[in-house]
Amino acid sequence: MTSIPSSFDMGPKDADDLEEMSFGQRIVYHCKQQPLVPIGCLLTTGAVVMAAQSIRTGNSRRAQNFFRWRIGFQGATLIALVAGSFLYDNHRKDMKTKEELMREKAKMREKLWIQELERRDEEAKSRRKRAELARQKTKENEEIIKKLEGELKELESKVTPKSK
Asked: What is the pTM of this model?
């Protein structure tokens, strides 16, 4: 099917289309979808940095506590990642894909275009029918005019000899 420009076409493409996003836009998009994952990553990183700083200063007890926090943050991040992926996957399955929406839109446009063509075809047929009726009426009128002209000539020929 060829692509016909139509007034039914919508505006520019959705900004949520991942293929058209830059790397930074994709990161922001995914962070907005699952905000607990980047927060967990930052907390885990902070715990590792604080543990490393405690090791440098020689405070092994404090470093041990930060490593324990790191394990907790890392576990919470993994749980958030798995749960978010599960929820997002179910949500995405429920929503129609962009391709399905485009197919439905194309079918609707095609249906409307066919209806428009049928309407135009009916108009053309009715114009042809009216034109044919007008031609027939004109032909009948011409025949009547010829008949009347013939009668007029007969009457003129009858009237003209008497006046001489």
From this structure: 0.47
